[in-house]
């Protein structure tokens, strides 16, 4: 007589996904809270519009020129005489440093060009006049 042993029922192993999902959500919240969001601070100006405007992605030195022709580095107003010295120390020895001029669209062109000339004399390798995308 042939006796067949009974097959043992296999135990199914289940991975608890609830704790794994909790950890993923906690990591997501952590990275959202610790991410440094890019916030541009500066002077309220209305930039000129251009159809072919392209976003700048590298670190730059930004000089703001308001409607009255005053120059600002960040939120600090800088006189035209002092602007040369400040830009020279910010550029340092880097010859290919980009300086962006964000001039108000109502500013007299001569004042914006004067700021660009000062930046070039301070050692800026590249100059850029900021515009906003015209939709």
Estimated share of beta-strand residues: 15-25%
Supply the number of helical segments. 3
Question: Helix amount, in percent?
Answer: 25-40%
Order of helices and strands: HEEEEHEHEE
What is the name of the CATH architecture of the domain at 49-133?
A: 2-Layer Sandwich
Side-by-side strand order of the widest sheet: 4-3-2-5-6
Q: What is the gyration radius calculated from CA atoms?
A: 29 Å
Instruction: Write down the CATH class of the domain at 49-133.
Output: Alpha Beta
Q: List how many beta strands DSSP finds.
A: 7
Biggest pleated sheet: 5 strands, mixed
What sort of overall outline do the alpha carbons produce when their principal axes are compared? rod-shaped
> Class by helix and strand content?
alpha/beta
Q: Give the terminus-to-terminus CA distance.
A: 90 Å
Return residue spans where pLDDT drops below 50 for at least 5 consecutive residues: none
CATH topology of the domain at 49-133: Nucleotidyltransferase, domain 5
Mean pLDDT: 79
List descriptors.
135 residues, Nucleotidyltransferase, domain 5, 5-stranded mixed β-sheet, two-stranded parallel sheet, 32% helix, rod-shaped
